[in-house]
Amino acid sequence: MDEDSIECTAELVIFNKDAIAIVKSLTPDNIKDLPNYLDINCRNENDKLICVIKIKDCKDSKRILSLKNTLDDLLINIRSIIDSINISS
Questions:
Q1: CA 82: distance to chain centroid?
Q2: Cα(4)–Cα(51) distance, rounded to whole angstroms?
Q3: Which spans in 1-89 are helix H?
């Protein structure tokens, strides 16, 4: 990354006993065709779902909006997964 480029990072942390299942359900979304400026990584740590979203070149307001929209999408997907797990239990 060049010295004029700014990277924005958001970290989403959700405590949930089913964090492993949530991560497994999100994995296909993490590896789909993402724009080259966007990186998403979700993992489980001791019943904590941790998702890190990185956007390169945050000087561009469209990229910041992309970060916000990615967070919104992740939260919607996580809520759906949790609801599905609770229905199954």
A1: 15
A2: 26
A3: 19-30, 61-88
Which domains does the chain possess? 8-88 (3.30.310.50)
pLDDT tens, N- to C-terminus, the chain (89 residues):
555 678 999 999 999 999 999 999 987 655 667 888 999 999 999 999 999 999 998 888 899 999 999 999 999 999 999 999 888 76
Per the listing, tokens 């929209």 go with 69
**Helix, strand, or coil (residue 34):** coil
* Among 10, 16, 19, 5, residue whose Cα is nearest residue 58: 5
